[in-house]
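Q: Structure tokens for this one, please.
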Amino acid sequence: MKDLFGKHRVCGVIAAATSREMILQVRAGLRTTRTLELRLDYLRTPKEREAFLFWLKGKRPRAMWIATCRREEGGGLFQGSREEQIEVLSEATRSGVDWCDVEIETAKHMARGELSRRLAPARVMVSHHDFRKTPKNLGEIARRLRQAGGEAIKVAAHCRSVSDSVRICELARGHRNVVAIPMGEVGLAGRVLSLRMGSALAYAAVEQATAPGQLSLNTMVDLYRAGSITTRTRVYGVIGNPVGHSLSPLLHNTAFRARKFDAVFVPFLVRNLREFLGSFKQLGVAGLSVTIPHKEKIIRFLDGCDPLAAQIGAVNTVVVRGGGRLYGYNTDYVGVLRSLEQRMTLAGSRVLLFGAGGAARAAAFALAQAGSIVCLCARRPERARALAKAVGGHVVAREDLKQEFFDAIVNCTPIGMHPNRGTPLKSAELNCRIVMDMVYRPRETELLKLARRKAIAVISGLEMFLAQGFAQYEIWTGERAPENAMRRVVEAALDREEKSKGRRS
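A: Here is the predicted structure, written as tokens:
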């Protein structure tokens, strides 16, 4: 059972309406993996299926082929009967495919052994898909799939929480013939980590995603290096809501690659922090980056905390120590100082922080210790007053900003963060020498554009993002961060994003 699907555990999904498009995708997919799923139900006519299978039989490159022709009742596009579905798969078998994936909605209507007999010499995988939720009775579902007579089973289900992902991935632990697929945005990290927990395959789109949360093949292989993940691979991740915008996976996976460190960094969409912290250790997580809205909430769940982070009252970095104990740090503090002290003298300067959340708390303590006069303005005045009291600062009412002047104004809110637009402050409220935005994506936010139009110097949130990320890497690994490699890859990603937007506008 060791290499049930071959050595390439990341399966590229081929899905297109025409045989020509399918062939082009096959050729593209083979440049990255030698395990491919052929979604025959996506081909729009019997003629297109016939043409593609004829090509496959006549010019079949060496690979592990998995044929799927999923009917509509099983979440696919095939509109024919079960008998017609089996005939399509039989033809695929005659074209040389190695496996046929048959959904339980079809398999349960066939006598035990009939599927294997009719689809021989191809091997059979029996699958269950739930696009609405993760069923509670996963164990019973797996048992029914095994009874259907295939050599492997697949369970794919939509996740509403990280604990759902864990339950799905646990099905594969200790089994060589189980494919576990968490679906949806919440299931994204689980798609990568399922391989670490023993899933025989992980699926990724060559071109067209065929399930919610399905990553592209290039992302799965190049960014997450999923094919090389083992039980020894250390797991790190960022938790937040939202989290899809984060470039932390790119930043840290690049660092791991540069240092040849056997680790992977994944994004966890976390809506309920307590639920997440009750389940994430089963995924082998060794450390976490914490972002909005969990930086302050997470402190009550920690077993220990760096004194500075405790004083700030916000944590953005967590280390999982022996016995699963959680220890917190704050590297936003470092990021703020490095970003501002290169452009101005902090001692005696008057700095306005707009916002009073976890990032603002780190900035306030950093600036106060550097000797700055800290001013706070926030949507919730009571939080601004509490933070001002903690650092010996002052509260400035929003309506007074037009009459005030500051050496620097720092946006500590997520307003303007990709993919949303907007600016937290108006042009008339920007009366200062420097404007810094903690939002780093886009690199030039609407706020920074306003500042430039007023000839005010600007500092992108990218500088803070990089500085705090360097510090995180060093806390987790005990090694110096490969700063140049980390900076280059993030800047290149933002450059591509900006050029792409420019072409669309």
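A few notes: The CA atoms of residues 233 and 263 lie 5 Å apart. The chain is about 35% helix and 20% strand.
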